[in-house]
Amino acid sequence: MYDVSTIDVTRPLLDRAKIATILPHRGTMALLDGIAVLNAAEMLVVGWMDVPADAFWTPGHFPGTPLLPGVLLVEASAQLSLVGYKTVEPSIADRLVVFGGIDDVRFRGAVRPGDRVFLIAKMTETTRRGARCSTQGVVAGRLVYEGEVFAVVT
Questions:
Q1: 3-class SS at 88?
Q2: How many angstroms separate the CA atoms of 152 and 64, rounded?
Q3: What pLDDT score does 82 carry?
Q4: Of residues 61, 70, 109, 112, which has the active-site annotation?
Q5: Residue 134 has what pLDDT?
Q6: Of the candidates 45, 46, 49, which has an alpha carbon nearest to the alpha carbon of residue 87?
Q7: Computed over its alpha carbons, how large is the radius of gyration of the chain?
Q8: Furthest-apart CA atoms within the chain: distance in Å
Q9: Torsion angle, CA of 61/32/81/15, rounded to 10 degrees?
Q10: Fewer Cβ neighbours under 10 Å: the N or C end of the chain?
Q11: pLDDT at residue 104, rounded to an integer
Q12: What pLDDT score does 110 carry?
């Protein structure tokens, strides 16, 4: 959906501190490290997460061969989607928005500690009640994840 090789991570549009002004996620659940593209006209947002070597899940998922749990990849994509949604639908900017569901999720490669995962979200439907986004994850130029995420405004 987007050529992530063109992204300059040294010049994020939004860094972790600015992302925290949009999203309620904190601590180990604040998964995004930067946003590079936020295009309301195209309903597209592109960002990244750097997978830490000392993440809470590394000792147990899986011992000796740590892999980012797929559920965290989906969560990171949902967080990215929420940044875009709150940008294009300012009436919900101060509302709590939660997961409504996921569809057609496929994991196509492993994500390991030390990887940078570029995440792409294209909003396909937005209203004041919710949103639907097509999402992808890319590591080292390779598609590792794709799926649809749904959000519901509470």
A1: helix
A2: 38
A3: 98
A4: 61
A5: 98
A6: 45
A7: 15
A8: 46
A9: 180
A10: C
A11: 98
A12: 97
Task: Answer yes or no: 61 catalytic.
Answer: yes
Cβ atoms < 10 Å from Cβ of 110: 12
- Domain extent for 60: 4-153
Q: Name the domain count of the chain.
A: 1
- Residue 19 has what pLDDT? 98
Instruction: Indicate the length of the chain as a whole number.
Output: 154
Residue with tokens 């999402």, as numbered in its chain = 135
For residue 135, list its beta bridge partners.
Answer: 121, 147
Spans of the chain, pLDDT less than 50: none
pLDDT at residue 31, as a whole number: 98
Provide DSSP, 139-150.
Answer: ETTEEEEEEEEE
Provide the whole-model pTM: 0.97
Q: How many CA atoms lie within 13 A of 80 on its CB side?
A: 36
> How are strands ordered across the β-sheet holding 44-50?
14-15, 34-39, 44-50, 116-126, 130-139, 142-153, 97-107
